[in-house]
Amino acid sequence: MCPPDYFRVEYAINPWMRPETCSVDSRRARAEWSRLRDVMEIVAEVELLAPSADLPDMVFTANSGFVLGNSVLLARYRHPERRGEVPHVRRYFSDRGYTIHELPAEVCFEGTGDAILDRGGEWIWAGHGFRSDPDAHDVLARCFQLDVVSLHLIDARFYHLDTCLAPLTGGYLMYYPGAFDAPSLSAIEDRVPSERRIVVDEADAATFACNAVNVGKTIIAHALSAGLRERLLRIGFSVEVIPLDEFVKAGGAAFCMMLRLEDERNRPARVKR
Ligand code: ARG
Q1: Given 81, 114, 115, 261, which residue has the most CB atoms within 10 angstroms?
Q2: What tens-digit pLDDT sequence spans the chain (273 residues)?
Q3: What residues are annotated to the active site?
Q4: How far is CA 246 from the centre of its chain?
Q5: Which residues lie with the beta carbon below 6 Å from any ligand 1 atom?
Q6: 187, 90, 89, 73: which is closest to 141 by C-alpha?
């Protein structure tokens, strides 16, 4: 995670960002972020990336790359406003001895925002349409030797895959169908049996329900309707709601605000050195 010291809404690179009309309450942002970190520390070990004064979106570390084992594929941001984050992230991973993969110059890829390891099967769900290029999906498959299921995003409010799809422990998949084109919905249905699909409605999607963090049986989200919460509880998850309103002003919530370095489910994650 990256502390929100310099978090602001200064430019608009997604439909949620309105720099002219919204102002971020920095104290509130700090309190929300700290609460998220405190809850994360119960279920995981949290490492911090030092923030940088000229990079107001750096708090959204999910975008900085895709990590599996001791390898990382670094992001190449679509928008110049975020490109300055990459050298900080490269340094973080090179200092820790990771194998670093980079994309060809013309290919954009926004990390775990658009590439999420399934939590039941051995594949990566990958989004394209707004930020990441489909060519990045081939690079992902090659670097990590995993199947990549390409999904086409069609609603600008859900510009990153992690805003509309959340793989959950046990092979469940929580997603908002309205964010995808028809072939993508078929690809989801081919991989996930109907009893494992948790279809979310537009109202829940628009309050970032799918941008939830899942560790083991715990789900952490900015907001969930009573109905959705009930469905998750019924299949054995525990649910923690942490309001992240200041960050929603920038188009992100819980999942965006961390980059998963290890996965308790399948891979050994970081190889011990
Ligand atoms: N303002 C940031 C952007 O538009 C928000 C990123 C949210 N991150 C995410 N993984 N969805 O790039």
Answers
A1: 114
A2: 999 999 999 999 999 999 999 899 999 999 999 999 999 999 999 999 999 999 999 999 999 999 999 999 999 999 999 999 999 999 999 999 999 999 999 999 999 999 999 998 789 999 999 999 999 999 999 999 999 999 999 999 999 999 999 999 999 999 999 999 999 999 999 999 999 999 999 999 999 999 999 999 999 999 999 999 999 999 999 999 999 999 999 999 999 999 999 876 545 444 433
A3: 160, 256
A4: 17
A5: 13-14, 17, 57, 60, 62-63, 82, 113, 160, 162-163, 250-252, 256
A6: 73
Using DSSP, state whether 174 is helix, strand or coil: strand
Contact 57, 87 (CB under 8 A): no
Cα distance between residue 131 and residue 117, in whole Å: 18
Containing 198, the helix (H) or strand (E) segment is strand 197-199
* Top mutation candidate among 2, 10, 14 for ligand 1, by most atoms within 8 Å of CB: 14
Query: Which of 59, 132, 160 for mutating ligand 1's site (highest number of atoms within 8 Å of CB)?
Result: 160
* Rounded-to-integer distance, Cα 73 and Cα 59, Å: 19
Instruction: Give the DSSP H or E segment for 29.
Output: helix 26-43
Reading the block at residue 98, the tokens are 């990771």
251 CA to middle of ligand 1, Å? 6
* Tokens (6 digits) for 144: 């990590």
Query: Tell me: domain 26-257, CATH 3.75.10.10, correct?
Result: yes
Inter-CA distances, 192 with 9, 135, 176, 187, 197, Å:
37, 24, 14, 9, 7
Asked if 100 contacts 90 with a C-beta cutoff of 8 angstroms, the reply is yes
- Rounded Cα gap, residues 162 and 256, in angstroms: 7
The number of residues making up the chain comes to 273
